Amino acid sequence: MSGGVDSSTVAAMLRAEGHNIIGLTMQLWNQRRLAGREGMPESVQGRCCSLDDVYDARRVAQQIGIPYYVVNHEESFERDVVRPFVEEYLSGRTPIPCSLCNNHLKFEQLHLVARQIGAERVATGHYARVGFEEKAQRWWLKRPADLGKDQTYFLFGLTQEQLSRTMFPLGELTKPEVRERARRHGLALAEKPDSQEICFVPGGDYKRFIDAYLAEQGESLPDTAGELVTTSGEIIGDHGGIHNFTVGQRKGLGVATGSPLYVIQISGANRQVVVGSDEHLYSRQLRARRVNLISVEDLHEPMRVAVKIRHRHEPAPAMIEKTGEDEIRVTFDQPQRAITPGQAAVFYDGEVVVGGGWIV
Amino acid sequence: MQRVYLDNNATTPVLPEVFEAMRPYFGEQFGNASSIHHHGQETRAAVEGAREAVAELLDCSASEIVFTSGGTESDNLAVAGLLKAGDHVITSSIEHHAVLHAVKHLEEMGCEITVVPVDESCLVDPADVKRALRPNTRLVTIMMANNETGVLQPVEEIGKVAAEAGVLFHTDAVQAAGKVAISVKRIGCHALSISSHKLHGPQGVGALYLQKGTRLQPLFHGGRHERSRRAGTENVPGIVGLGQAAKLARDGMEKGAAAKLAAMRDELERQVLEQIEDTCVNGTGAARVTNTSNIRFGHIEGEALVIALDLKGLAVSTGAACSSGAIEPSHVLIAMGLRPEQARTSIRFSLGKQTTQADVDFALNLLPGTVSRLRDLSPTYHKKAVTT
To answer: What Cα–Cα distance (Å) separates residue A276 from each residue in A230, A332, B190?
Structure first.
């Protein structure tokens, strides 16, 4: 229970259905830690894991009459989500902390706590659907009824074991319907705005966050300054550090040329940022590693799917093919813009999540 | 569901006699104890009666008792009230945050602080206190009984060190009051804090013993209450409750209440150590108050164990709750030399006057199965063999 509308409504719905439920909130990050450091905002109100949110979650639990606990996973969150987030940027990739958080915290640590305290299943406010396919004897993950709220992109890492213990009660509902249910259950937070940004990065300013985090750790920002080069290898300037860039970015390159330039590639090894015109951003292939398959046990032959390469991306038709023990090659029918290392490639067969992996 | 409460170091239930003693002061006896009329005189008498009862518990005179809102205020009043910028204060690493944070705050305001360590038994060495003395040392503040382990500190020896050096000595006796006999004279302290709700009185009231002639800068201004040491209209029902609780605590001690708790606590420890492998008691090397037991269950997450036990009706605790309610590893156990992962496997059981052998049996029935289920799910348990 994050203290938001979705998980609160899940709790109220399950309670009303007569389930025996326990409310848990994960304390993941202390926003106060970096407040005021390196230009980070002083005020920490209304952010993830803020006292306001815990207060809201606790009030919901009290209102619907269920036991409620806050469990401390700050250490694991820092180790498994925050550190990798910082290191990915410093290596020239664009990470997705929400997937790491789902994999390591919500569906691993929280599931473990749940089993330890005697719970059979864990329900969350994610927009997705889960179920069991008798024929294949496998648990499936599907996109939700409200495709605008689809969170399956962040859930591709779920194992069969995790899915078997998961409930997504909002999978068949749209967001307005969820708010309507919240109102019907008399929840005071029915109109609370959705959270948008990465929960631990205020205002989405990840560069400022990295500066503040490293300063707090007593580490200096590694020097990743280097050259700006064109796709044909011509050096056209310098840049202040590869973590300031993301593939597809246009603004802030600091060079003036006739036609608009975009970041095409970031090379962590030699600190080069490759820039080029819009057309250079398009590519038909990608490789994904650290693969997790859901609807099938293994990929014995190439498969036709639709592939999503970032959260706000319409799944694009493609073939996927196993090219190594833990590697899948994705070949799109049409070239895709700004395939970004560090993001996930998630494979869909219609509404069914086939699996996914991390773009390298 | 049957519920058993073994978290009496967090708070204790108000005894029925205490509640009865308080009752009139919510109703017909409502006067402001500072008023000169009949109503004021009635409640003034009640407040002074309570003051005498507390003074008897602490072996001091009634005029040396200042009523406060609780242990935290008593600690803050002693620390902030006895120190000024430029003074040096000596405290220990196992103090309650009411002392530790108050002292840290004073450091920001220009005081110097020394935090003396404890050994693996949770004991402060008076020689460390002596070594820490400086020409500008004004105050030593070291607790009497630790809230997490129950370990009793050598306060009389520390009192001697302070006396020899001519510095003030404050002790936080919140977890000692009602559990062991307290004599401020024997301890040789200038100030001592207690809290009502730790000895079966109501929450929201406490007291500070302040030796006659000790100059104190008050925290609150706005009246001559409590001989100008604590402004504000007295919390009469609360003070009456504390007085009654102090009286009952003293009677109880005379009737051997501590030995009765010791028998149950020792049995709890013996059975846990015998029935559950990879367990040990924190702070066994030292004298402890008789109601407290802090036990390490190797390879479990204390937080999960506390939740699992609560869901089955047993209330115990672990570590210290942070502002959100999440658990942080105990600074006391860390100060005793435990690694954070060891500190996190520790659970505190604390018995109270109302605790029965049936309560202890309830806990003993529940623990082995619950611990074993947590261990079956522990990622580190099967790799193990070594004792944590």
So the answer is: 6, 21, 77
